[in-house]
Amino acid sequence: MLSRKGIIPEEYVLTRLAEDVPDHARYRARERRARFVGKNGACNNGACNVAHKNIREQGRFLQDVFTTLVDLKWPHTLLIFTMSFLCSWLLFGMVWWLIAFAHGDLDHSTRLQRSPGEGVAGGSDSFVPCVTSIHSFTSAFLFSIEVQVTIGFGGRMVTEECPAAILVLIVQNIVGLVINAIMLGCIFMKTSQAHRRAETLIFSKHAVIALREGKLCFMLRVGDLRKSMIISATIRMQVVKKTASLEGEVVPLNQIDIQMENPVGGNSIFLVSPLIIYHVIDKNSPLYDISPLNLHHHEDLEIIVILEGVVETTGITTQARTSYLADEILWGQRFVPIVAEEDGRYSVDYSKFGNTVKVPTPSCTARQLEEDKSIMDTMPLSPKGTIRKRSVKLKPKFTIS
């Protein structure tokens, strides 16, 4: 974790990595609303920040016992792993002791230990036990371990004297294989969970609202630190806020999908280099009536960003999440470029991943901007000549016909 902090700058946040400095220290004027999705994409063991209470049908979790075991924390999983083997060894150790006790193996072994020569004189050497060298519950417990983990030390073995012992031997082997399959599969799934890949999928710490092509847009930056790609990556956004219907019904967490735009079109992205994903604030957008004033003082909303894709190396679907509260949305700023061409290849400067610069942006809602076109005429926009010069400077030296 220390090495990750040294490599990754503080301007952006890794998924599933909590912020070092809480933002409420900077905004003490008002109480910060509770997040629906954590800033690092995970709360409450990977789920949303929702506490489930008064669940009466707890037995439903046991109907899907494998998923329940995978969802448990590592200490609980290791405890169940240890106790499952220990309890099975003790159970079958008791069974082996009862078989030896019922057959008289314990009494005969005791007599042989007290009188070693009696077996030859009295003919007791013809006695065949169910399991050899079973003298007490301890030896029965050791034999149970040897049977289940297939360790043969050569001191104890099942004979043909007792069919019940042979049946118990078969049952214990089957039970041991089942326990091994379940527990090893559970541990494998926990170590190969897809959310580990999402640790290197990053989002900008802040989102911005600025003009793009003459329209107000909500923008954020997303990137992937690994060289292995995320296949079929898709990104989507939702606005979560408290709403009330015309009938007076209050919906505390109303989830509204908002249309995304990105450089490659649609929701699918080709995440080779960091991309700026944006949403055009039009009349169909839930941000249509938001201005800088009510964004930070009156609007109680949260914008959730979800990135999904298939891990190239494993073929497992992964998902990375983050969220932006109102005080994490910067009005009138845009992200600085971080991709440059060097020595015939493109390089990405991640130290500027979350850096923004101020740009001329109207301090009004998208509705007012659309209704009153004169607002754009009074704005000191950036000169287009500068943009043209930059485009000429970065023009590639080769063409594709």
From TrEMBL:
Keywords noted in UniProt: ATP-binding, Disulfide bond, Ion channel, Ion transport, Membrane, Metal-binding, Nucleotide-binding, Phosphoprotein, Potassium, Potassium transport, Transmembrane, Transmembrane helix, Transport, Voltage-gated channel
Any one GO BP annotation for this protein: potassium ion import across plasma membrane
Catalytic activity entry: K(+)(in) = K(+)(out)
GO cellular component, one term: plasma membrane
Gene Ontology molecular function terms on file: ATP binding; ATP-activated inward rectifier potassium channel activity; metal ion binding
PANTHER family: ATP-SENSITIVE INWARD RECTIFIER POTASSIUM CHANNEL 11, INWARD RECTIFIER POTASSIUM CHANNEL
Protein's recorded name: ATP-sensitive inward rectifier potassium channel 11
Native species: Alca torda
Organism placement in taxonomy: Eukaryota, Metazoa, Chordata, Craniata, Vertebrata
